[in-house]
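Model: Ready when you are.
Researcher: Fold this.
Model:
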Amino acid sequence: LMPHDVNKAITFIRRAVKNGEIPAEAVNKSCRKILQAKYWVGLHHRTAVRTDSLLADLKKPAYYNLYRDLAKHALILLKNDHDVIPLKGLDQVKLATVTIGRQESRIEGAVTDLYLEGSHFFLSSTEGEKGQEALLSALQPFNTVIVNVLSTSTRASRKYGISDATVRFLAALDTTATLILNVAGVPYALSRFPDLDHMDAVILSHNSDSLFQHLAMQGIFGGIPLTGTMPVSAGKLAKAGDGIRTGPAIRFEYAQPFDAGLNEDTLRKMEGIIQHAIREKAMPGCQVLVARHGKVVWNRAWGYHTYQKRRAVRTSDIYDLASITKVVATTAALMKLREQGKFHEDSVLAVYDPIPDSSNKAQLKAGDVLSHHAGLEPWIPFYLHTLEPLYASQHLISNNRSYTYPYKIGNGSYANRHVKYVDGIYRASYSEDYPVQVAENLYMRSELIDSVYHWIHQSELLSREYRYSGLGFHLFHQIIESITDTSLADYVRDQFYAPLGATTLGYKPLERFSVDRIVPTENDLFFRRQLLQGHVHDMGAAMLGGVSGNAGLFSDANDLAKMMQMFLNGGNYGGKQFLEPATLALYTACYHCDEGNRRGLGFDRPLTDEPDAGPACNAASSLSYGHSGFTGTLTWVDPAYDLVYVFLSNRVHPDMGNNKLIEMNVRTDVQQVIYDAIIE
């Protein structure tokens, strides 16, 4: 099929015809097919072809989408025991990838990490027995192993680039794990493997090109369907026409804007908005993700972690989501409990054990609290109870900035520079009496948690109208933990984040990730007296140990988008039904529209009748919903356009008095660019 010496190939074919090994008509039939194809594309009208720009002409961007589509449909799934592909139950998967034959790019591990973070290994195709044994030992903790055989050859005389050492390694793999083999070679390369019975799945991805390998990994996780069939027979495993179809995509596909009906040139206009915001110090950097029709087509990062510009933002870096926690943790948990008959938005809070009957919150309807229509105070600065001025004649807070009150902590609120912690509340290290970590080297007495809830239970009720408040979400934190008899952090991890493969999404990121990967928020000079990095910015959530219904979640844009896509899919993602469509429809709809309240149950919604107002851009439809976060975050879903948008930043760095991101409408201006880019 691919002769390296054409003249020699012709000589051998002639000899085979002469000796009766190949019928002359077979040769003639093949030649006629080729001539017909040439005639069909007009080659009988010969025109000169410029060869000086041949590669540039063939690599025009307009051709890329067709090339990608061809590559996607060419991938062949030849074996799929027990339907292991696409991978399911990601909360049970401990993943390792082994790349044989190419070390420089590691594209395979980078792609699988988009679906589920794992460990990645490289093995030389000539690795000796000792090195192979070391790798086999390192793979023991993993229950799922993807082996990618790359850098193959088209020539049989070179064993198709697959060494005997590679064959021995594959044969020695632990069969108790789920084993997936991806061969980037010609179909005949499969004949190099005498026995693949112990492999659970086998994929032929043709070549080591980054596009083919990117798509092959997506196919393993169900980001794209696998539909290819064998063009020829190759060994015992595959016959011509063989190929297993996996059905429609069940997770994100990582594609190009054109694939989702978006104009890439228009999307690039957001870069000007973002770079201007960074120059104006509205934020040090940010992540932006755009997904449409279930395809992530824009996942990019700009700027740095801080204004010192020592670490550029990467798309895998982790941000403090702030109040996005309200929908992605608390509201999601309540929807799940509602479906189990354990919670209902029409119930009063007194139905649930943690809310004392003596509290004026006891008779509040849960739906009113969720929609910020219950008359709760906007917030309570709990942390001020733990601070006192060094000078008894001074106050903690002033309405005017001065030398003594330099730190802006709110609109018209400035904090005293001369303060101390109230005696007996904090310690620098963990102990049984001081188990609650508020920040680095700052631990609080556990009794203060009860005080936080007491202050909420006894707080004043205001007029019943729309008034944004986080206090009710602290109460829902109590309710969820009482019903489930587990921590909120563990409940949402087990019910949502782990099955989604949303590895970075969760509370207390320092327990799971390196501090360098977490983007800093405020340099808190007043309360915690340190640069916050991996510890929640919200003071109330900090006093609850970093886990609350109001704030505390961290994530990168990609993992947060999985949760939002699940909402958009009517509660389904990765082949699993997390929530029912009817529940999502109820909670994302306007709950008190007749009283001038745009909010849903937990979810925020757009102001479609008032331009340049509300949390979303003007183009967002009335069906859209999402939430923003104090730290400079926003996530939004629009069912009318099948669209997911995530914006993550740390605008509160170095201090939360910086409101430029809000004043400049950066998040909504970037969102408007996405709508402007829609072409179909």
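Researcher: Now this one.
Model:
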Amino acid sequence: MKELKDQINAGDKVDGKSIDGTYALDDGSGLSGAYFSFVGDKFYEYESSEKQIFAEESYWNSSVDAFYLKRSGSWVIQDGTLVCNGAPRGKIAFEEKKVTLADKTYSKFSGFKEERYSSLSVKENVQTQYDYRSHSVSVPVNIIRPIPAGTLLASTKNIWMKDIQIENGVVTFEMEENNSDVERTGTIVFHYVGAEDVMLNFIQSYTASEISLSVDLQQVGYEGGSFSFDFEVTHPREDVSVTAQSQASWITDVVVGENRISYVISENPFVVGRSGSIVLNYGKNGTVYASVIFSVFQQSNPNGTDLSASGSANCYIVSNVGKYQFKTVRGNSSTSVGSVSKAEVLWESFGTTTAPSKGDIIQSVSYKAGSGSSAGTITFSTPSTLRNGNAVIAAKDASGNILWSWHIWVCSGYDPVATAQTYYKNAGVMMDRNLGATSATPGNVGALGLLYQWGRKDPFLGSSSISSDTKAASTLSWPSPVSSSSSNGTIAYATAHPTTFITYNSSNNDWYYTGSSSTDNTRWQSSKTIYDPCPPGWRVPDGGGNGVWSKAVGSSSSFTRTYDSTKRGMNFSGKFGSAGTIWYPASGYLNLGNDGSLLDVGRIGGWWSCTPDGYYACSLSLNYSGNVY
């Protein structure tokens, strides 16, 4: 020990050397939890919440907040005792780079520096480039000059590098499959208290998946049937599968097998071939890694679709371009209409002021006789571009007399079942439009449809306007109306003259003549008759107190309803049923008692039921005053 003079003051030297500096309590471990410093005339004493490194005259401060100042103040050494702020701290003696204070030895060091004591290194042969597949990666990390209680850590900000584990100096993690279409780089950061962080980059490439097909195009006959083709995925990915979606309504029941797609094609009803496709996608959660289109071409149908296959009727709906046929039978019966010699189109109409040219709606029509007692068939085709409207086709005998006629209702895409509306209280299921209407939109002239005499199967033209009594134009010069009599007020006459309007006779207020006040109420009934004007699966509704409208409303009494004076009709949504729009247009009517003229379009609407009431018939009617009967 050095002999000290009686008093050493700040600024004095011991053995010619300044005593300024930082000293750490030294227990031989290179760690310390107690420190003090002489800085000029100030003395500072610190403690740490845990032992810190001061070995090799360097110091790495892992957490400044871990230190706190125990005491500080001015100092002096009197008679070998350190006095701080007038309070003795204990005997003090100095050696080379060491101080003994209160019988504890402190070593002098460089002080609180941000210097690294340890260091990290990664072996040079660690693989850092990988393909698109998932991998388990191991990285050995060397710790140079480890410190007591030091812990190796590893972290990443890349979500596709996960499940990091550290054991015996080896860092392992899982690299997810690269499902993107670009190369990606991820970084692992290795961290050790007392060492500079080390970053290691990993590059993962991508490989585009592909779907290959056994055939790209399949040609099939018009009859349709079940078919299949094979596929293969190259560069497959984890938990990803192939889905297949038809892009045509006539390609259905698409099923994906292990390496095969099966599908069903319906019969082609058209006189031209048609093309469709199935799209195969290889993906997951909205991400598509590969896609391919399989094409189908179906040959044209030389015969056309049989509209009467599911049931015959006096009206048939055509919603697509094509070739069609139906049996020449009386309405919904199996009874032949007689000895047919030919078929021809009686009239065509767009339902507007513009008259179509012949062939605009029905391009061609022909008749083919049946074998034996079987009824023949009428075949017709639409133009290559479908045009909405209505037409009537007649079957004629060798003398040119009309034996029967059928209403062809052309409305692109129309499906009466899909758009049907269910009325309240199980009253019934109704079409969303009038017979012959090419629209169900309120205010659209196409929603007016056609007009009918009670008990007749053939339609008459309605208006070409929602607000005026102007009949729609057609290809026919319509014959003048005739008065009901014993010769022309008959079913036979009405059948042979489907375009002739028959005015009523005063005996029974009916076009059907009996010569008395009685009439024939069997023409339309709840059980569909051969004179019902509706397409297969549909009929004229029941009326009266037990009819569809009274049931839906819950009463057969009249009521009031808001009349739309702009769109000229009423919306019965919430009254008849829950559909958002149940549109009944004010289509007007044909004057039965005079000349068959069109009256009150935009002011009055009337809908027949099949229910007679004496020599009248129950109906629904509305008017512009808001009254509904």
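Researcher: Key takeaway?
Model: The radius of gyration is 49 Å.
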